[in-house]
Amino acid sequence: AQTVTQSQPEMSVQEAETVTLSCTYDTSENNYYLFWYKQPPSRQMILVIRQEAYKQQNATENRFSVNFQKAAKSFSLKISDSQLGDTAMYFCAFMKVSGYALNFGKGTSLLVTP
Amino acid sequence: ETGVTQSPTHLIKTRGQQVTLRCSSQSGHNTVSWYQQALGQGPQFIFQYYREEENGRGNFPPRFSGLQFPNYSSELNVNALELDDSALYLCASSSAREYEQYFGPGTRLTVT
Q1: φ and ψ of A62, to 5 deg
Q2: Residue A37 distance to chain B (closest CA, Å)
């Protein structure tokens, strides 16, 4: 079974600053996908960024980037130039290439302050 | 392009009752997955439907069941409701050609 661990229950960052959210996972699979989802108070789970394990290059989507360390089974999310609208719960998730289920961590609550 | 929609938004039921939650998949998507998100937790996979058949199931009892219709919309049915079934139920749709899952806004179920 795959487990996803997010060790930071809560984090806070000032507007325009950079913050990094941590995620580690445990799997015996070699091919898989990793995701970061954002869940604002509106509850809608929004896909922020994705990473295929076979790609060595770290994914980037505008202000969001990841640091994927396959050997260490680490997948952190960096948010640059934080904005008030980034305030949300952030979930790290894992899915096997041959699978269908997303395995989520418990989430990190991020608060962006003015 | 129409996103994933779910109904109802909120629902209050009594222990022992049955409930049906509905989900319409995003345009072009033929696969629907259901997740249960308890308060303060990450979502837990319930099951997935593809071509009107259950394609995979998480660690949930048989009183959690589902359907997928020819238009790819889906229902989640829960029988004999228990207090621990109180949660946000999320539906996600995806395409067989892509692996990303896109979520709806969820249904908040409260069991009293």
Answers
A1: 55, -115
A2: 10
Of B47, B26, B43, the residue nearest B100 (C-alpha)? B26
User: Per the structure block, which two tokens stand in for B97?
Assistant: 């050609």
Q: Which two tokens stand for residue A97?
A: 């290439």
The reply to whether residue B42 touches residue A101, judged by beta carbons under 8 angstroms, is no
State the average pLDDT over residues A49-77. 95
Peptide bond into B62 cis (omega under 30): no
Judged on CB neighbours under 10 Å (0-12, 13-18, 19+), A77 is buried
pLDDT at B1 over 70: no
pLDDT digit string (tens) for B53-98? Answer: 998 999 999 999 999 999 999 999 999 999 999 999 999 999 877 7
C-alpha separations of B16 from B7, B11, B53, B82 in Å = 21, 15, 27, 6
User: Quick check: helix, strand or coil at residue A95?
Assistant: strand
**Min Cα separation B41/chain A (Å):** 5
The nearest alpha carbon in chain A to B38 belongs to: A106
Residue A100 has pLDDT above 90, yes or no: no
